[in-house]
Amino acid sequence: MNPLLITGSIALDSVKTPIEEHHDMLGGSASYAAVAASFFTPVNLVGIVGSDFPPAYRDLYRHYNIDLAGLEVADGKTFRWSGEYEWDLNNRRTLSIALNVFETFEPKLPLPYRDTPYVFLANIAPALQLHVLAQVSAPRFIVADTMDLWIETTRDDLMTLLPKIDCLVLNDSETREFTRETSLVKGARKILDWGPKYVVVKKGEHGCLLFGRDLFFSAPAYPLEDIHDPTGAGDCFAGAMAGYLAKEDRVDHDTLRRAVIYGSALASFNVEAFSLGRLQTLTPQDIEERYRLFKQMSHFEAT
Length: 303
Ligand code: AMP
Description:
Layout: E1 4-7, E2 11-16, E3 21-27, H1 29-37, E4 43-50, H2 55-63, E5 67-74, E6 79-85, E7 92-98, E8 118-121, H3 126-133, E9 141-145, H4 148-153, H5 155-161, E10 167-171, H6 172-179, H7 184-193, E11 198-202, E12 208-212, E13 215-219, H8 233-248, H9 253-270, H10 277-281, H11 284-298
Parallel strand pairs: 1-4, 1-8, 2-6, 4-5, 8-9, 9-10, 10-11
Antiparallel strand pairs: 2-3, 6-7, 11-12, 12-13
Helix pairs in contact: 1-8, 3-5, 6-7, 8-9, 9-11
Bound molecules: adenosine monophosphate.
Residues 9, 11, 13, 27-29, 81, 97, 123-124, 149, 231-235 line the site of adenosine monophosphate.
């Protein structure tokens, strides 16, 4: 099996919705991505936590066979984030963010990680993504995620990253902000011109679009009735997508289309409970069943 290297944030999250509120749950882009990817392929995790990181969360990673040789434990506090959702769960407000141990993080990859063939750079400062990538010797396929904060504050670093990766994943509003285009098609084309071979534009509960120079694919949204916490959906999407590509060890157009559907399936499960609650009860059979439903939902016969 081809392992997938994942770096990104590891957080203690506090999340409030109009109905529920939970504190200090396991979160962070790398946590969601790693657990989602682990359903497809072994994961090598690169990140940092503080001395306050609960042992139970470390055990949770272990439960998914996530390799923790690249997980640094530093003196100080784990990264913390809190956010609040309104009734429209597409709209999120960040209430507070404390980088803590991430402020001085200088990731050093364990030797066996350096030739991991597939890489997912989950959302974190692009300078850190670049630092990790520089230590991987001959990656076959690199997926990266980003967010509005980095588009606004570290655009130059992001532009340096783009020619070094194969696929950028970002959401619709970030695409518009990054490219200053109202059309997602024009925006995605612009990003392709900046370096990556593929761009995936996520549209929240409305599905996602995959663009390549001679590829366009539109993935439907799963009609969810029970959304409890959208946090981490994007990370699960990209983690599962990269995990599936690593498992298949192929990145042709058909495999990419399937990877996008597996990503959408994992994201749709993740929002059914807070933190990683739903992924903890998820089985490979559940995933296959939802994958088939995605096919059924979007298939039609031309007369
Ligand atoms: P998503 O809902 O996919 O955008 O990801 C949510 C996760 O991102 C949460 O678990 C947060 O801990 C994490 N997060 C929030 N802000 C940042 C940031 N500036 N850098 C890295 N991770 C973040």
